[in-house]
UniProtKB/TrEMBL annotation:
Protein name: HIG1 hypoxia inducible domain family member 1B
UniProt organism field: Theropithecus gelada (Gelada baboon)
Matching InterPro entries: Hypoxia_induced_domain, RCF1
GO terms, biological process: mitochondrial respirasome assembly
Gene: HIGD1B
Keyword Amino-acid biosynthesis applies: no
Membrane-spanning residues: 30-47, 67-85
Amino acid sequence: MSANRRWWVPPDDKDSVSEKLLRKTRESPLVPIGLGGCLVVAAYRIYRLRSRGSTKMSIHLIHTRVAAQACAVGAIMLGAVYTTYSDYIKRMAQDTGEK
């Protein structure tokens, strides 16, 4: 093994993580909404972990995962509906308005 502790250096021409996140946010604003929803659900379920009563830990974790996935899938569906509306329905309305 090498004594060099800094064994990986990112390339200079690549974007940083924060720049990538900002670019993706501008391209698709529902991605951070889905990510935020997942984080909120996970934080709430961790908070509720103490008062879960007699529920097994595995059941509690499954419910947490399902709720977080529901937020992510909901954001994906909203993005798909918005994209369909903006690409197809608006275009069809413009095409019929021009005739």
